Amino acid sequence: MKLYEKLADEIGEAVRRGVFAAGERIPSVRQSSQQHGVSIKTVLHAYALLEGRGLIETRPQSGYFVREPAAAPQNERELAAPPAPASEVDVSRLVLSTLRSIRAHDAVPLGSPYPDPTLFPWRRINQYANAIARRHSSWNLIDDLPPGNPELIRQIARRYAENGVPVDPDEIIITLGATEAINLSLQAVAKPGDTVVVESPTYYAMLHAIERLGMRAIAVATHPTEGIDIEVLAQIIGEQKIAACMVMPNFQNPLGFQMPDERKKQLVDLLTGHDIPVIENDVYQELYFGEARPTTLKNFDTKGLVLHCASFSKSLTASYRIGWAMPGRYRPQVEKLKFLNTLTTPSVPQVAVADYLRQDGYDRHLRHVRKLYRQQARLMSAMVLRFFPSGTRISSPQGGYVLWVQMPERVDSMRLYQAALARGITVGPGYMFSTRNDFRYFIRLNYSYPWTAQTEAALRTLGGLVAEMA
After folding, report:
1. Are residues 109 and 239 both part of a single domain?
2. What positions does the domain HTH gntR-type occupy (predicted)?
3. Are residues 371 and 334 in the same domain?
4. Per-residue model confidence as pLDDT tens digits over 143-199
5. How far apart are CA 185 and CA 173, in angstroms?
6. Other beta carbons less than 10 A from residue 70's beta carbon
7. Is a pLDDT exceeding 70 seen at residue 44?
8. What angle do CA 211, 214, 216 make, to 5 degrees?
9. 79 and 222 in one domain?
10. Dist CA 6 CA 170 (whole Å)
């Protein structure tokens, strides 16, 4: 190998490892000549070779710079079809361990399931709560029995009406977050031993609810832009008894897609034809990147078979745990189960959130959050494609705050999780999103937190770890 080729290989490797970032200036010809103890002619030959390889470029009167990578072709960015199932894993134990590690290690929270709390107007909501507490003495400030605080219910119904979803306020039941709404809905439509269809991958809270109630989950492959495979679902329904279906049509966690309206209608029509209820988890409904809030399955429900669940935990305040269910024909059962399970939802948080919705700028707050998430989704997507090795694919979130990353098949997400944690970084290993080992080489990343130099360094480190494992 000639001297200039050796120098070119050395600098090229530094570029590939991220020592010199895209758009960054590399040492001048004179500097490289001095640093490497070679002639200026040798450096010029080496730089010409690197230009030919597409790694660097010359800028007149400025020097040599690392070339910005070309945009990945669409087929490189798109996620592949879900892999075949393998051995089962204990999802609940893995999720708990992951959440504990995020808290205990004070790590970069790329693996966090929660949005950045600093974006919430919690000070303003707390002011409402304190004012309510001062207005009422402790002996007459009682919790609202189900269905919940009437003013909060009215405000929720008003928001749906403003977005084109016809809602009867009498259908709404206030719950302790969307998780309770999902659990109550599942209890209302199925019993231990029943079979429930879920998406694959799916949000692990769905799997927890099924496991806790002693039911059996069947995972149906879910397209990264179209949603659950309705044709496969129809085949399963024809072969065995299905008690219910659980889906996230809008900004699904972890894929982030928005199910097209025609697919939503097809899904509801299929399930209605077989009299099968569907539990719709719509917790990210307000965090859309488009011009208007998307439709829900509830828009297409004609028989009361859609049990719609949502909350303010992802968009307004997580600490108050205010969610709700609109259970259609199952409303009496859900209301009774709410009373039997937790009796009430605390009154002060309900009234405080209702006051905020009525008097403050919720829509202004949401516009700010949506804009920020949209920008950070693009930024994280670009950084993952830049720092992770060839063969990496990513989702295209249409809302929410998580990115689903498919890595080369040799990479094990649990090994990556452990190696990253040792370096003060968390990720969401793909194992959490299935009852089986279906997503071994996938991870979920959270982009809601402020973009900092620490965040970029963490992604660069992750990319290096993935490259080593691949």
Report:
1. no
2. 1-69
3. no
4. 578 999 999 999 999 999 988 887 899 999 999 999 999 999 999 999 999 999 999
5. 11
6. 7
7. yes
8. 70
9. no
10. 75
**What residues contact 335, with CB distance under 8 A and at least 6 apart?**
146, 147, 173
How many domains are there within the chain?
A: 3
Between CA 330 and CA 107 the distance in angstroms is 43
pLDDT at residue 76 is higher than 60: no
Q: Clarify whether residues 313 and 168 are in a common domain.
A: yes
Strand order across the 428-429 sheet: 393-394, 402-406, 442-446, 428-429
Domain of 35?
A: 3-66
pLDDT per residue as tens digits for the range 262-278: 999 999 999 999 999 99
Q: Are residues 315 and 418 in the same domain?
A: no
This prediction has a pTM of 0.79
Burial classification of residue 404, based on how many CB atoms lie within 10 Å of its CB (0-12 exposed, 13-18 middle, 19 or more buried): buried
CA–CA gap between residue 66 and residue 51 (Å, rounded): 9
Question: How many Cα atoms sit within 13 Å of 201 on the Cβ side?
Answer: 34
Residues 6 or more apart in contact with residue 90 via CB below 8 angstroms: none
Tokens standing for residue 235: 């085949």
pLDDT, tens digit (0-9, with 9 covering 90-100), for 430-445: 999 987 778 999 999 9
